[in-house]
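Quick one: structure for this chain?
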Amino acid sequence: MRLLVRKVLIIMLVFANVMLYSETPESVIEKNLRARGNIDSLQNLKTFRIVGKIETEGTEFPMVYYYKSPDKYRIQVDLMGQSGITVFNGDDGWLVDPSQNIFTPQRLSAMDVASIKPMLNCIFSFYSDKLINYESKGIKLDSLYQSAYEGKKVFNLAFTTPGNHHYTYTIDPNSYLDFVHTVVLGTTNLTFKLKLMEFYSFNGIVFPRIIESKVDNNQRLTKVVIENIQVNNPIDDNLFSIP
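Got it. Here's what it folds into:
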């Protein structure tokens, strides 16, 4: 009986390895996109509004994040009763930051936009359609390789986006969901590591409820907790214009 069980386990391990090695970047991308929801829903994601909170070092900050296709972002954080706001509207950007004594909207320089915007984009990249028709977006696939993550085999899909930002998606070989994003930003060489957790489906798209992030080797953990999402509701362009 023990011999039979051992043989079965060996066969299962061999089969699992064969399945892992038989995958190609294209097949993993296809399965990942299917796992993340309806491809039409991903492509037709024009706006969303996220309400949640940012947790860091034992403190919570209420947050609202807006996205409007193709290139408008706004994050508003309640900082002890005052609003910190960062906005990007294409290649323009502005902010209000009470923690830096900036109480009226201040336009960001082109250099600031180039360095800060990719950080915000990578933290909320779970909704991105980067890998749909990726070649037409100027994205280059670098490699697909295996590694162990917390004792389990995973796929790692590495690719480079315009701006020389290097992404690696760590993908569960069973669900094909990407649950860890490692991003090296070409503008700053900062490394972001994001862990996506507690997935759920909404409007044909799979979202995480929690995103944990670290920068470089800093042990300080920042957590984004998503409490509510509104998808494809109208968002006024004035939210992204400097007052």
